[in-house]
Design a protein that fits this description.
Radius of gyration: 32 Å
Shape: elongated
Helix content: 25-40%
Number of helices: 19
Mean pLDDT: 84
Distance between the termini: 52 Å
Low-confidence stretches: 564-568
């Protein structure tokens, strides 16, 4: 069985939250303090017994501020039950129709102001008061890997080390004797070594001298307690011939995680097996992050009786971009309300979903961590907008705006993620109107994109009449620097263009001439933007130099204080 849904009320900064989990791998992504840890901790409260050292210890500070300690309420649903699961968890069953059942587990936490203690009540099913099975947690196996974890601690020899647990899972009862026979033989051989004999004799002689013949005890020296549990408790990893303590932190993290997953996969006695990982990217370089994520995805979909549900929370845009798109749950806070958007619940055409998966490279993965999003057509806008924002009187970085390069007009791949009950942060698309001439009708593609504003309340479309470069060249203040950038790439043609533009009268004529030559020369937009951005960074221009549609976009995102005169394009 697997966890399908989690509901949370009045927990920390969360008012009401519903999280839907896909089967297999879930990657909770979002900026710091968005609510990811609260989701993981809510799961810890429900998935661990109160006796488990990894269970959540609630305090006064866990109750939502301003509610006078309103009770924390958390519940989760499990689906995909076997017949055995239905029998074992019968107190927790909920009829979902068509002869199918799910398991529901609930928790209510109340704060006693007199004792300053938190009282936790757990029950199964929809009706409060129904008990959990006596051995409820004997059928649930969850391992929690906290952020900034110490993998060495989990790898050290001991009865509860992950290595010890894994070996124990892989050893049948009739194989215990094999371990014990080897340890017994080793003890016998070690006892017969002369230095050991002399040491044993010396200890016994000293004991006899101290306690006398009547009270002394005979001492034996052994290598290890020859019982199976003690033997496997002494096992520890050795990496490339060296003790694991000398290994790098990142690789020890991988070894510890691997041993944990191996133990869970082979624990067939559990109905539900999961691993909660905060910041799986900790101490790993990008390539290892991707490989670990790929392994998580494979383990999570193993249908051969070894399935482990993996729920990871991450700040890494690399993991967010490389995760299977349906595994992503975007956690964000808008106007004080925490929301969780599960991509698996969004109806997206399969072709568009595949397109989105391809587009989510490491840079575009940042959209899941953004407070404000500015989507642009290409590299030229992405390079120039930071400096244009500065000229306009603001800063994209200071305003926490993420610039997303859609690489053309592929905005349709990203739009399904935004809107009501989806990612609710402010989004602006800055695009070209692609009219054939100034004052002409904008393209059907641009008009269709503009119509999306009516469907998505948090979306704003701002567009030029023709193109981005044409709109910039209309600015009397910016055009001279555009000519300088052009001359850096094409010195001879640039000098000719400069002279031709000087002979023209109106700004519109100059913009048309510049765009015509720019397109005829097939100038690399990226290279031109790099040159122009470098030049503009050294200039002090007034905000009016920036085209109005760009200022409108910046104002909507809160980068500049007031919307430019002229209104919304």
């Amino acid at each position: 069985m697997w966890l399908r849904e989690l509901q949370i009320s009045n927990f920390r900064k969360i008012d009401e939250l519903n999280v839907t989990f896909p089967r297999g791998l879930t990657v909770l992504v979002g900026e710091n303090n968005s609510g990811k840890t609260a989701i993981v901790d809510a799961l810890r409260l429900l998935l661990y017994s109160s006796r488990d050292f990894d269970s959540l210890r609630l305090t006064e500070g866990d109750f939502r501020a301003g509610t006078d300690y309103a009770p924390i309420e958390i519940s989760c649903r499990f689906t995909g039950l076997t017949d055995i699961d239905e029998v074992y968890f019968q107190e927790c069953l909920v009829d979902v129709g068509d002869g199918r059942f799910e398991i529901q587990v609930n928790a209510r936490v109340e704060f006693n102001k007199t004792t300053n203690r938190c009282n936790v009540k757990l029950w199964g099913g929809e009706t409060e008061g129904a008990a959990l099975p006596v051995n409820h947690y004997d059928r649930l196996a969850t391992v929690y890997l906290q952020p900034l974890r110490d993998p060495e601690r989990g790898l050290r020899p001991g009865q509860y080390s992950q290595v010890s647990r894994l070996v124990a899972c892989l050893t049948s009862d009739d194989q215990h004797a094999d371990f014990e026979a080897i340890a017994t033989e080793a003890n016998t051989k070690l006892r017969d070594l002369p230095p050991v004999k002399r040491a044993r004799g010396d200890i016994n002689a000293q004991m006899a001298a101290i306690a006398g013949d009547e009270l002394t005890q005979s001492t034996e020296l052994i290598f290890a307690d020859p019982s199976f549990r003690r033997i496997v408790a002494g096992l520890q990893p050795e990496i490339d011939g060296l003790p694991f303590a000398l290994n790098g932190l990142g690789y020890n993290n991988l070894i510890f995680t691997s041993a944990t997953l191996g133990t869970l996969r082979r624990s067939a006695q559990f109905s539900f097996r999961s691993i909660l990982v905060e910041e799986p990217e900790a101490h790993l370089h990008p390539q290892l992050q991707v490989l670990l994520l790929k392994h998580f995805a494979n383990v999570a979909v193993d249908q051969e009786g070894h399935e482990v549900q993996v729920i990871a929370s991450s700040h890494s845009p690399i993991l967010a971009s490389q995760a299977p798109i349906d595994s992503v749950v975007s956690v964000h806070e808008v106007e004080g309300k925490v929301s969780a958007v599960s991509v698996c619940t969004i109806e997206i055409e399969d072709k568009i979903k595949k397109k989105l998966q391809r587009f989510l490279d490491a840079t575009r993965g940042e959209l899941f961590f953004a407070r404000r999003i500015l989507m642009v057509e290409g590299i030229a806008e992405a390079l120039l907008l930071p400096v244009l924002a500065r000229i306009a009187g603001g800063s994209l970085k200071d305003s926490a705006v993420t610039v997303l390069n859609a690489d053309g007009i592929n905005f349709n791949a990203f739009l399904p993620l935004f809107g009501l009950n989806r990612i609710g942060v402010p989004v602006v698309i800055l695009t070209d109107g692609d009219a054939h001439e100034p004052g002409g009708e904008r393209s059907a593609t641009a008009a269709g994109l503009k119509a999306k504003e009516a469907e998505l309340s948090n979306l704003r479309i701002e567009m030029s009449e023709l193109t981005f470069e044409h709109e910039l060249s209309r600015s009397d203040a910016i055009l001279p620097y555009m000519i300088s950038a052009f001359k850096e790439i094409h010195p001879i043609k640039g000098a000719t263009l400069e002279a031709d533009l000087a002979a023209l009268g109106s700004a519109e004529e100059k913009a048309q001439e510049f765009l015509g030559v720019f397109l005829d020369m097939r100038v690399s937009k990226g290279r031109f933007a790099q040159e122009l951005a470098g030049i503009l960074e050294e200039q002090k221009l007034s905000g009016e130099a920036v085209p109005m549609y760009i200022r409108n976009a910046l104002a909507y995102l809160g980068v500049i204080s007031q919307e430019a005169d002229g209104g919304h394009n």
